[in-house]
Design brief:
single chain; 8-stranded parallel beta sheet; binds zinc ion
């Protein structure tokens, strides 16, 4: 199978786990379940330029917070993982789009960056390798949550993925990591019903498009409206066999997390009584946080904890607690660290 990492790129991007994180030794203590964290310092090699909001620091700030966190760190395990293969990506993306990505990536000179032709996404010399590694992190997260006793995983990846459609990169996204993870779970573990909860401030148009005709993946998104990319109206509920398996909620600018919590309780919970997901994936965009550079919502750190508790209740009720969270947006590094700290603290309760 063809891998996007060429031997040259691999030699340039030697695996480098964060200090004190390479070991894979967290164990259940005091009845708490360890959480599998997926991160690799090679994610820093994607460089969209100094003025771009999607910076490596967004993610490294989270890792630094966790590594020095007295109460969380003992419960976190940090395994290594491989990049997704072309075959893995073909479960989600078209061959023509993957060929376009390869061709445009090959034309980026070292030390430079340029726009991807499909729209509002900047690539540098190693961007496709980094995106493919991020998709691989999602697959490793699936492996982790499907092997008890560690049903919880959080992939701290970049660039984000939920705007990437079958045929098009956009919105800083090259490959759709959570969609790749969902299809991998279906194929590798014969999971029949997957819920994707998207809490990013932006609508995950790519994820919706990939699954909108599919009744095996239920896509829920609560996002600021109006905002990029403009899709995700409540009237968009899926098509064909997938009609009724997409749920969109508009959140007005200035709102705090109460709109999302209300939608989870009043709309998603009743829908899941019918759907009964066997696995839950979370597009954990953190750009709905108060003060984010790209959004105008007002979610608090405590709010992210409450959101995590609500989603965990669904996972415990239907999915044997199995949840994979994957970072999407979030453009203020310290706020990303605060939100992930709140989420993990809630999940470990
Ligand atoms: Zn976003």
């Amino acid at each position: 199978m063809k891998r996007y990492f060429s031997p040259i790129v691999l030699s340039l991007l030697l695996p480098c786990m964060p200090e004190a994180a390479a070991q894979d030794g967290a164990t259940a203590i005091s009845g708490k379940t360890p959480i599998t964290m997926l991160y690799d310092t090679r994610f820093e090699a994607h460089d969209p330029g100094p003025e771009h909001p999607e910076q490596a620091r967004r993610v490294s700030a989270i890792v630094e917070r966790l590594q020095h966190h007295e109460s969380l760190q003992p419960f976190l395990r940090w395994p290594t993982f491989a990049a997704a293969t072309r075959a893995d990506l073909l479960r989600v993306h078209s061959a023509a789009y993957l060929d376009l990505l390869n061709a445009e990536q090959a034309r980026v000179p070292a030390g430079t960056h340029r726009p991807l032709s499909t729209g509002d996404t900047v690539i540098s010399q190693h961007s496709l390798a980094v995106a493919t590694l991020a998709s691989g992190a999602g697959m490793a997260g699936i492996d982790a949550v499907m092997s008890q006793p560690s049903p919880l995983a959080f992939a701290l990846v970049r660039p984000p993925g939920h705007h990437a459609t079958r045929d098009r990169g956009m919105g800083f996204c090259l490959t759709n990591h959570i969609a790749v993870a969902a299809r991998y779970a279906q194929q590798r573990y014969a999971i029949q019903r997957i819920l994707i909860v998207d809490i990013d401030v932006h609508h995950g148009n790519g994820t919706q498009e990939i699954f909108e005709a599919d009744n095996s993946v239920f896509y829920f998104s609560a996002h600021q409206h109006p905002l990029y990319p403009g899709s995700g109206r409540p009237s968009e509920q899926g098509v064909g066999a997938g009609l009724g398996y997409t749920m969109n909620v508009d959140v007005p600018p200035g709102s705090n997390e109460q709109v999302l919590l209300h939608a989870l309780d009043q709309q998603l919970v009743p829908a899941m009584q019918q759907f009964r997901p066997q696995l839950i994936l979370v597009s954990a965009g953190l750009d709905a946080h108060a003060g984010d550079r790209l959004g105008a919502l007002q979610y608090s750190d405590a709010g992210y904890g409450n959101i995590a508790i609500r989603i965990k209740q669904l996972a415990d009720a239907y999915a044997q607690g199995r949840m994979l969270w994957m970072l999407e947006g979030g453009y203020v590094p310290v706020q990303n660290a605060n939100a992930v700290e709140a989420i993990l603290t809630a999940l470990l309760r």
